């Protein structure tokens, strides 16, 4: 099945192809015109303008984005004017001269949109009433096709009619369409990431909420002070876990929420659950996908230690490794047959382990295939899950509105945490 990540890769390839096609035609255009500057300088200028237009168009087909992109496109094409319309033919932006001629082009634009095919018309067929020379000699209207639908048109107004100029207009429209498609795929990718977080919440909440409330209710009469503390921890845990904004968080905030989770679980399991944190202070601000560690900790408690007579030790480690942070969640519980690890890709669907497949997919999607989870396990030998997280990744930023400071001493020292 084709994933959003695959689509993004395919669209990126299409974007490169479209860019190279426009660039190649531009070089030929420069040579044909015998421009005074060197071809190399022209190509550099072309690449710079394509880069700027590309970033503007990634915002979608809006008036603001079109206003920013059309000047770069006009300079690329070295034409009289460039305009972009929406899917109804309304002009979003017109850069250059002859803008008063759009009234003569409405029917041409409508045909291009309705037929999803380029339209070429010269000045003689426009019905222009201008007395004297007109800067508009030739117009090419090319549909901007995004996901199979016409999202708008690119209008290229030229002072000289030529087949090369028509071809340049077509390739530029293809380049614009590719950038708009990449924007659509990026939105789909974000929607998928949000859906994956929702799926994790749905898996985590039922059994933990039930057990947490049972534990708290059992303490109300015997230890009301402890019950109030646990209720506060539970409230903060749910507030963080069910927040609706932000796909990323810092390691510090994720560990704080794990601390809340483990405080509640230790009230339930007592001496059967011991926790040790080994956290290097310099990696606390590393950014990672939201709710990526807590499910691994929950799996260690639920599937590793809870099934082991007498319980055991949970160890969470985060250390500096150059350009990356190495994070591991390890338990000395019952472990599992390594042959079963192939099933982790479907574990989030079967419920065998809370969100492991989901987390694996998210790490690969956000950071790349080389950042997939690494799992070490054997029967009666515990389980260790290792994550590599780059210290910097493009478009991976924490939600600055949500978060708390790490004030727990165990987070910055190698010693038992919560309760040994």
Automatic annotation (TrEMBL):
Q: Which SUPFAM superfamilies does the record cross-reference, listed alphabetically?
A: ATPase domain of HSP90 chaperone/DNA topoisomerase II/histidine kinase, GAF domain-like
Stretches of the chain forming a coiled coil according to its record: none
Q: Which UniProt keywords apply?
A: Kinase, Membrane, Transferase, Transmembrane, Transmembrane helix
GO terms of molecular function: kinase activity
Which InterPro entries does the entry mention? Bact_2-comp_sensor_kinase (IPR050640), GAF (IPR003018), GAF-like_dom_sf (IPR029016), HATPase_C_sf (IPR036890), HATPase_dom (IPR003594), Sig_transdc_His_kin_internal (IPR010559)
Q: Which residues form the Histidine kinase/HSP90-like ATPase domain?
A: 284-393
Q: Where are the transmembrane segments?
A: 12-30
- This protein is called Histidine kinase
